[in-house]
């Protein structure tokens, strides 16, 4: 084995990993009550593109389901957020240093290293969160005329359908769109975060940014992330939203009893590119940015806390405790200790 490959030689590695995962999990739990209603509004708006304003979305959800409508899909979303927050922060700390360790002669641009980290994270987590995303979107987009019992029957029918491969087809519907969204989201967030923080450090002549500067960085990160992610996110919602049947079919005509039909729901059989064409044909390019205002608020809440927490964790664990285990020759020579 080449000596440049990392080996677990630091006894603090597992402890530090667990602590970072703990902080990430706490962050996810604390922000969920505030972020979930925004996610519900954004998803509902994407499924009901005929709604014209942020206020109208809130009124429609309130009229259809009351307060509970803003927390539809909270159970699968809570599981999704908790899982993501537990592994994402340790990996965001580990992977950049790991890439630098195994590729010491490669490019040292922080944004490029963060881009590689984004590819790695998206490739793993898309398969983890896709089933939870599917259930969340189904619960958020069910028509007002469909009861909770009917929704559960719809889910069970999809999971037990003979052609569903033991429910995998149903749960992993929209996997390509989930992967595209996560890939774009991770790369844009990590690369923008690295670039904007680098510019901020040069502008302020400070290695450690204060809270106000971090919030300004988070605003830029949130805007870039929203612009980049929205098209894939809209495609994902169209592929995963509630449909009367799990079989491939064209959208059925709206029922008179349904106050909010799904006029632009793409047929289940459409793939990523075909769904994108369907959205463009029925709504134009604006269809890819339905709900972008809500998405920006959601990402501002997310990115603001993420940027601050990421800065703090990078200082605490990479500079002080060295989250990634040292290379074998460093462990033997005592080199590579964290900066105090």
UniProtKB/TrEMBL annotation:
The keyword Nucleotide-binding does not apply. It is a multi-pass membrane protein. Pfam families: Mito_carr. Solcar repeats lie at residues 15-98, 109-199, 206-316. Gene3D superfamilies: Mitochondrial carrier domain. Residues 241-264 are annotated as: Disordered. Residues 251-264 have a biased composition (Pro residues). Keywords: Membrane, Mitochondrion, Mitochondrion inner membrane, Repeat, Transmembrane, Transmembrane helix, Transport. It is found in: Mitochondrion inner membrane. PROSITE patterns: SOLCAR. One of its GO terms (cellular component) is mitochondrial inner membrane. It comes from the Eukaryota. Belongs to the mitochondrial carrier (TC 2.A.29) family. PANTHER family: MITOCHONDRIAL 2-OXODICARBOXYLATE CARRIER. This is Mitochondrial carrier protein. It comes from Vitrella brassicaformis (strain CCMP3155).
């Amino acid at each position: 084995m080449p000596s440049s490959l990392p080996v677990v030689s630091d006894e603090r590695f597992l402890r530090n990993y667990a602590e970072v995962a703990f902080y990430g999990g706490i962050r996810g739990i604390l922000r969920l009550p505030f972020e979930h209603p925004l996610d519900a509004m954004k998803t509902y708006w994407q499924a009901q593109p005929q709604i014209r304003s942020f206020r109208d979305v809130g009124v429609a959800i309130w009229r259809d389901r009351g307060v509970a409508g803003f927390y539809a899909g909270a159970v699968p979303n809570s599981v999704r957020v908790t899982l993501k927050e537990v592994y994402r922060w340790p990996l965001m700390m580990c992977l950049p240093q790991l890439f630098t360790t195994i590729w010491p002669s490669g490019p040292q641009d922080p944004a490029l290293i963060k881009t590689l980290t984004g590819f790695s994270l998206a490739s793993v987590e898309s398969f983890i969160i896709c089933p939870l995303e599917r259930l969340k979107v189904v619960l958020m987009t069910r028509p007002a005329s469909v009861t909770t019992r009917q929704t559960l029957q719809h889910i069970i029918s999809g999971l037990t359908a003979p052609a569903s491969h033991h429910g995998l087809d149903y749960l992993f519907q929209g996997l390509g769109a989930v992967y595209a969204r996560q890939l774009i989201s991770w790369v844009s967030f990590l690369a923008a975060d690295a670039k904007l923080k680098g510019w901020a450090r040069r502008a302020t002549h400070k290695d450690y940014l204060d809270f106000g500067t971090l919030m300004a960085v988070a605003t830029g990160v949130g805007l870039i992330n929203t612009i980049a992610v929205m098209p894939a996110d809209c495609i994902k919602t169209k592929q995963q939203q509630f449909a009367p049947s799990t079989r491939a079919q064209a959208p059925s005509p709206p029922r008179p009893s349904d106050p909010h039909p799904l006029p632009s729901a793409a047929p289940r059989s459409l793939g990523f590119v075909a769904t994108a064409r369907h959205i463009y044909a029925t709504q134009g390019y604006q269809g890819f940015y339905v709900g972008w205002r809500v998405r920006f608020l959601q990402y501002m809440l997310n990115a603001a806390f993420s940027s601050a927490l990421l800065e703090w964790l990078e200082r605490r664990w990479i500079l002080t405790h060295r989250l990634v285990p040292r290379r074998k020759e460093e462990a033997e020579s005592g080199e590579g200790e964290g900066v105090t």
